[in-house]
């Protein structure tokens, strides 16, 4: 049966659930939507522009996508994700989107409550995750309809809010509000518990034959006594134990402990800013958060005749900081490791018409480096192919170029914006054993969680699933495939258990 409308975490006795989702951003929301019984079917009159995929869909038109062979449907499809189910589901929701077409989705959604799988979604803040912490005025990288979740078109929701749709791109504040309203409109509130902080996720019991092995660094062997039943054979529990606390409005903490047959990691990668690892990086004038810079600007701390702000990084967050500084006439020193002609720079992948502000930054990067007549562009000076050697207590930074030449620059503030890493501190050794490269930190690009491509279950740890940026799907349009794969996997296992129970009952 579904949980109550307002979920709370019990203390005694512990609650055991089929699945606990850690993270309430778009990944966790989409997974909860599908686990709640919403199922996608091929629309009656839909014709996919890919004739091979259309033919395969027609073979089982009466079945939901959850009930079909995802590997068969995914075969031969290409897209901007390395996960085949993510590409499949994206091309069903946004056919030929990467070719500039705006074809409607070929899916229709039906609520079939008999397929509800009990679960809860634990998050630190309101549903929407990191979107609530982003600067509210910036335009997002993706089109508004690429940010949407199944069953509720972003444009329809935005029109209902009387938003002036001058652009197809949305602001983070609008996206955060959309996700928060989404769970209410879809009736998912019963599954969400906010203000929860996870401190430990372990398996307190292990298989007898595994208890003496080293494991993979995630699961810990327990010294609990074996539980035996009438035939004296050991019955070893394999549920996950999740411990943490909820934080009340007055700041007090309420601890909780619950058990789950499976967990899904949907934490995203915005928790821990990446660091340079250089001397002086912890000095007060060095920041790893664009919000701190914006706060300083708004308070007037950087107004007037000041030394330049150093911005380190060549991604979109660094570009946002450059735009903010430029708009407030703050001089900028921009250091980044790559060449301006590097094809992997994100600016080269963005259409100029849709992202003019980012191409303005890229133009500055190309034309206003320290090797050109920088006196013509005193507001911005780029240092391509440079790295930071150290920060000094006297507000000076030491840069080094590819030739080994060092430069000492006086600055007013340093912004290190070189990406971020997920916070998996609740797993032993922060989940290092789950990645493609053992014993290395999990990162969305270099070392994502290694999963079965058609179930999103960890290849290193049974009954542990991951989706979204943790498996390399950084765009919201692709994380939905992970929710589809996990839901299908759990439904299949549930059916198999029921068949076994029925056969045992007959015998």
Automatic annotation (TrEMBL):
Protein's name in the database: Oxidative stress-induced growth inhibitor 2
InterPro entries in the cross-refs: FAD/NAD-bd_sf (IPR036188), OSGIN1/2 (IPR029731)
Gene Ontology MF terms in the entry: growth factor activity
One of the GO biological process terms: negative regulation of cell growth
């Amino acid at each position: 049966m579904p949980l109550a409308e307002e979920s709370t975490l019990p203390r005694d006795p512990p609650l055991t659930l089929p699945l606990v989702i850690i993270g309430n951003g778009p990944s966790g929301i989409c997974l909860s939507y599908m686990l709640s019984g919403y199922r996608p079917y091929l629309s009656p009159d839909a014709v996919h522009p890919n004739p091979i995929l259309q033919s395969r869909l027609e073979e089982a038109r009466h079945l939901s996508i959850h009930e079909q062979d995802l590997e068969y449907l995914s075969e031969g499809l290409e897209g901007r994700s390395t996960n085949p189910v993510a590409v499949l589901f994206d091309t069903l929701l946004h056919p030929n989107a990467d070719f500039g077409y705006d074809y409607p989705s070929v899916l229709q959604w039906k609520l079939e409550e008999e397929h509800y799988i009990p679960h809860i979604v634990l998050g630190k803040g309101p549903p929407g995750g990191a979107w609530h912490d982003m600067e509210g005025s910036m335009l997002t990288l993706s089109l508004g309809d690429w940010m949407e979740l199944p069953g509720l078109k972003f444009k329809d929701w935005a029109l209902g809010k009387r938003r002036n749709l001058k652009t197809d791109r949305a602001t983070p504040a609008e996206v955060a509000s959309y996700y928060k309203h989404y769970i209410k409109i879809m009736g998912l509130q019963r599954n969400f518990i906010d203000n929860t902080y996870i401190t430990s996720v372990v398996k307190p019991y292990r298989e007898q034959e595994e208890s003496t092995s080293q494991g993979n660094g995630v699961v810990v062997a327990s010294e609990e006594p074996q539980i035996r039943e009438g035939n004296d054979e050991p019955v070893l529990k394999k549920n996950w134990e999740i411990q943490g606390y909820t934080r009340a409005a007055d700041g007090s903490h309420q601890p909780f402990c619950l058990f789950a047959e499976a967990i899904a990691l949907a934490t995203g990668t915005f928790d821990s800013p990446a660091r340079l690892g250089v001397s002086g990086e912890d000095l007060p004038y060095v920041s790893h958060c664009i919000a701190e810079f914006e706060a300083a600007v708004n308070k007037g701390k950087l107004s007037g005749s000041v030394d330049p702000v150093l911005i380190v990084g060549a991604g979109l967050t660094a570009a946002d900081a450059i735009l903010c500084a430029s708009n407030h006439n703050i001089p900028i020193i921009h250091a980044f490791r790559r060449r301006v002609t590097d094809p992997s720079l994100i600016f080269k992948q963005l259409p100029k018409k849709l992202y003019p502000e980012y191409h303005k930054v890229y133009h500055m990067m190309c034309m206003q480096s320290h090797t050109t007549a920088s006196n013509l562009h005193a507001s911005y000076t780029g240092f391509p192919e440079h790295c930071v050697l150290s920060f000094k207590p006297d507000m000076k930074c030491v840069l080094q170029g590819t030739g080994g030449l060092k430069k000492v620059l006086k600055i007013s503030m340093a912004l290190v914006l070189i990406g971020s890493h997920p916070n998996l501190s609740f797993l032993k050794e922060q989940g290092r054993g789950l990645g493609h490269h053992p014993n290395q930190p999990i990162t969305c690009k270099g070392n994502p969680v290694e999963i079965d491509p058609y179930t999103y279950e960890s290849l290193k740890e049974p009954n542990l699933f991951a989706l979204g940026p943790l498996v390399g799907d950084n765009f919201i349009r692709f994380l939905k495939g992970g929710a589809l794969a996990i839901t299908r996997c759990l439904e299949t296992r549930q059916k198999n258990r029921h068949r076994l129970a029925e056969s045992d009952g007959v015998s």
